[in-house]
Amino acid sequence: MSEPMKWRPWRFGILMVLSGVTIAAALSVLVLTPGAGLGSLVAILLFGGWLAPFSLALHYHGALKSLKSLKSATPTDVEKARSAAVAAVNDSRAKASRHEYHQERTLGRIERELRQLSVLAPHGRWTGADGLDVLFVTSNGAGLGHITRLLAISQNLPPNRTFELLTLSKAYKQVAGRGMTVHYFPSSEATGENTARWNRIFRNYFRDLVTTRRPSVVVFDGTWVYNGITDVCRAFGITLVWVQRGMWRPEVDEASPQRHAAAGVVDHVIVPGDIAGNETVDSGPGLEATYVGPIVRTRKEDLAEREGACKALGLDPAGRYVLLSLGGGSISDPDSIAHTALTFIRSASPELIPVQVVSPLVDIIEEIPGLRRIKAYPVMAHARAFEYMVAAAGYNSVQESVSLGVPSVLVPNFSTKTDDQVRRARLLEKQGLCLVADNETALRESIARMADANIRRELRSRIELVDAPRGAEEAAAAIEEIVEQTEWIRGVDTVKGSEIFDA
Questions:
Q1: What is 364-409 written as a DSSP string?
Q2: Nearest to 193 by CA among 168, 225, 224
C-alpha cells in the first residue's frame, strides 16, 4: 500500500494563486474584447482554473480519509488488508505461472513436432511384411553392464525372434561375432563432439538404421533416453521400451525429468530387480512400470567345473585364485584402489594368486609380478575358478557374485553418476551376503577375514539360500508380449485386381 500524499499548504496556495490569475485573465479577455470570437479560449481558461484546485482538493480529501482510516485501524484490520494484498499478488503470480506452464508445454510440443518433421523428411513410413523383431540399444556406460543385461534378455527370446544390437560402448567388439549383429556408434564423450551436434548426427544415423533394419520394437538400456531415439521411434510408429536399472542416487533420481515422466519419451518401462533390495519407481502419469527379477547373463547351471574354468582362462588348476575386478586407476599406481587391494591380498593370503580382469579396450597387458591379468567376457562364466572376488558394487557384479555363489568383498565406487553402489553394498551386507569395504581400513580387514576358509564357507551357505534370479526370462517374456502386440502392422498388404478377377 503506497504512503498517502502529505499535506503541503504552500503547494495548495501556489495552485490557488495560479488558478485565480487564470480565471481573471479569462474574464479580462471576455470584458475587453467582446465579440472577438475568443469564446472557446475563455471557456478553456475558466474550466482549467476551476478544475485544477478542485482535483487537488479531492485528492487531499481522499488521502486524509485513508490516513484517518489507517490511524484508527486495529491490528486485525491491518492484517486483513495485508493478507488481501498478499493473496492478490499470489493470485496474479499463479495466473502468470499457469500461463508460462501452458506456454512451455505448447513450445515443447512444437519442438517435438519439428524434430519429427526433420526425421520424416527423407523417408516414408515402412509397412512391409518382413523386418527385425527387436533392436536393442545401449548408452555408453563405464563398462559392459548395459550390454550384458540386454544380451541376457536376448538369449531368452523365442528362437524365431530376430534381433540386433546398437551400442555406444567402445567394447562392442567383445560381443560381436557371438551370433548377434552389432552396430557401433561413437559416443559424444569418445569423440569429444559438441553434445548438440552429436545428437543431430546420431538422430540421422539412427533414422537410417531403423529405415534399413525396420525393427518392430526398440529396447533401450541406459539412464537417459536420447531425443533422437524417441523422435525416430515415434515418427515411425515403433514401440520403445526402456530397461531401467534401479538403485539410482537419490539426488539424480529426483532431478531426472525423464524417469518420472517416462511417457514423454518411451512407451514401456521395465525395471530389473536387485538382490540387494527392490524398489518402486514412479514413472509418472500414463505409464506403469513392469517389474522383473534380477537380470544375470550367466546362470549357475551354465558354469563350467573348476578345472575347465581354470583352463579356459589359461590358469593352472593346481593353483588357487582370487578375482580382482576394480577400476579406480592403474593397478601399477600405488594410490589406486586396485593396487591397495592387491597389496592386502598378498599380505593376507600369500598362497592365493590374484587374477585381474583387464578392460577389453586395453591393447597391451602389462606384466606385474605375482599377478595374473586376463581378458575374458563374460568372466563370470568361469566363476568356479576363484576362491572369492574383490569387486566394485555395480549392478552386474552384485547379481552375478550372489547368484553364482562367489563370496565377495564389495568396494563401492563413490564417483558413479547414477548408480548408488554404497546403498547396494550396504543392503547386501545386512543380509549377510558379502563383506563391504568403503575405505582402506575396511578393505584391509575384509580381505583379512576372507583369507579364512571358514568365513568363505559361511558366506557361501547364506548365498545358497537366495532364489535364482529369473529377471532375464521375465523381461524377455514382457518384450515378447509387446512384439506380438505390434505384429498386426505386418498384415498390411496390397493385392492387384487382376490376381482376384483373372479367369
A1: S---BTTBEEE--TTGGGGGGGEEEEEEE--HHHHHHHHHTT--EE
A2: 168
Coil, strand or helix at 291: strand
- Per the DSSP assignment, residues forming a β-bridge with 221 are 138, 243
Is there a contact between 429 and 398 (Cβ–Cβ < 8 Å)? Answer: no
* Residue 24 C-beta-side C-alpha neighbours within 13 Å: 6
CA distances from 164 to 135, 177, 215, 414, 455 (A): 5, 12, 9, 33, 43
Residue (of 224, 289, 212) closest to 252 by Cα position: 224
Type of residue at 471:
G
**Which distant-in-sequence residues (6+ apart) come within 8 Å of 193 by Cβ?**
201
In contact, 332 and 367? CB cutoff 8 Å: no
Name all contacts of 43-46 with Cβ < 8 Å and 24+ positions apart. Answer: 46/22
Distances (CA, A) of 482 to 240, 317, 375, 461: 10, 46, 37, 39
Residue 295 to residue 403: CA distance in whole angstroms: 10
Please give the single-letter amino acid code of residue 274: D
Q: Round to whole Å and give the CA distance between 376 and 105.
A: 49
| Percentage of the chain lying above the pLDDT 90 cut | 58
pLDDT per residue as tens digits for the range 104-139:
555 555 555 555 555 554 444 444 556 899 999 998
Residues 267-302: pLDDT tens digits?
A: 999 999 999 998 899 999 999 999 999 999 999 999
Question: For residue 220, what is its C-alpha cell?
Answer: 533401450
Helices (H), 175-249: 188-191, 195-213, 227-235
**Strand order through the sheet with 372-374:** 372-374, 353-357, 321-325, 386-392, 408-411, 435-436
Question: Is pLDDT larger for residue 66 or for residue 336?
Answer: 336
Per-position DSSP letters for 60-84, written without gaps between them:
HHHHHHHHHHHHH--HHHHHHHHHH
Cell 514413472 maps to which residue?
283
DSSP state of 248: B
CB-hemisphere CA count at 13 Å for 37? 0
Euclidean distance between CA atoms 105 and 131, whole angstroms = 35
- Dihedral sign for Cα atoms in the order 195, 198, 202, 203: positive
Q: What is the residue whose three cell numbers read 544390437?
A: 165
Place of cell 592387491: 342
Q: Is 129 in contact with 490 (CB distance < 8 Å)? A: yes
Task: Let me know how many helices (H) and strands (E) the chain has, helices first.
Answer: 16, 13
For residue 475, what are the CA distances in angstroms to 261, 294, 452, 479? 21, 10, 39, 6
